[in-house]
Amino acid sequence: MLSSIGDKIKALRLQKNLSQSELCGNFMSRVVLSRIENGKALPSLEQLAYLAEKLEVPVSYFFSDSTGEKYILFEKNSSLLKDLFLAKDYYEIIKWSEENHNAFCEVEDSNKYYYLGMSYFYSNIFDKALKILKKYINAFTKSSTDFKRENIEKFSDALNSLFKIMLKNKNYEKGIHYLELARKYLYQFNALSLPVSFAIHNNLAYTYLKTCQFQKIVIILENFINYNNDIISLKIMPDIYTSLNIAYYNLGNYEKALYYIKKAILLFEFQGDHLEAGKCYLNYINTLRHSSKFKEAFEVLEKAKNDYKDDAELYHKFKIQEMILYFNIGMYEKVIELSESINTSLLSMRGKKELAFILGHIKYLNKEFEEAYRFLKKCEKYFAEEIFYNDLSVIYEDLYAITGDVNYREKVLAVKNKSGRKNVIIK
């Protein structure tokens, strides 16, 4: 290890045609550099950082073929762990910590858990990331106020990563716990303008939407907007407005829902993001439909179809919206006619399931029970997972009528008046 670092320093110096004096400058003596290059001494942390900068390499370069002796350089701080992390050398951090467990434990800076835990996270080793990041959270909450203020961004990033791990297992309750903890400290240390704060609030909105806690979305995001009115980034505002639109139309406050989706469209267009603005028109049409403003919904739909006719996937989403509109006003023949022009390969998973539901219910009404059963079974599980209870109650009623299976009758009663997310059926 001694000679390895010294050899690399010397090789780079010669490659750049630098004398020892030129490399040392006023920072260190030639005698010290000579001892390092000859493998008789190790550089200090400050010397290594200086040499790395002068030789134009990351600090991690000196450890690329490291041995277990690397812990000598780490002493009792995490500055080199930080350098390796900033260089995205996650493998080296993991390798060193596993080969030098005792040395890692001796590092006094609690941020060592952040660097190691996030290295596991970025390496997709989620079980170990979970274990180490939880240690970081525990250490942070017990630390001094100064440490918390200085490292609030790392803390929030760690919690956001823990949320993502929970999301993989659909453990929304635990995921919300981590996000709310981050939000608490972001407010406490007046750090809401940090980029990670925007991610925390967007992820909270997503998770509360998934769990039908719409009022919480409204409270959290409107407070966030009011608190950050002067500093909030225009780039993230359309996403916040879209989340508020979805929350409000699920709560039945269509006036507010329309207000926010119009603001989202306006901002996306202002930023030149025509495609994202187009996606917002889907929410716009949804809101008009649920508020029974069908005439206006058809007008907006026709404009959107014309504006986005060159984007095949988005255009097909508008065609599904058109079918849903006609479905809700009972024009089933028009729905069947439109369905014949649908290319299902261009539909999202949700679009395919909505198509199956619409066709399945129409087939049931037309007493084509075998076809109805086939279509309805295609969307039953998906609608249950997405908590589309209004639609799901119709599916169960149709399946009960077709099969006579009392299990479907029990399922109807279980979801009939249950609070869920609005989708196809208007109630």
From TrEMBL:
It comes from the Bacteria. Keywords: DNA-binding, TPR repeat. TPR repeats lie at residues 238-271. GO terms for cellular component: cytosol. The keyword DNA-binding applies. Residues 9-62 form the HTH cro/C1-type domain. It comes from Thermoanaerobacter siderophilus SR4. One of its GO terms (molecular function) is DNA binding. SUPFAM superfamilies: lambda repressor-like DNA-binding domains, TPR-like. It holds the Pfam family HTH_3. This is Putative transcriptional regulator.
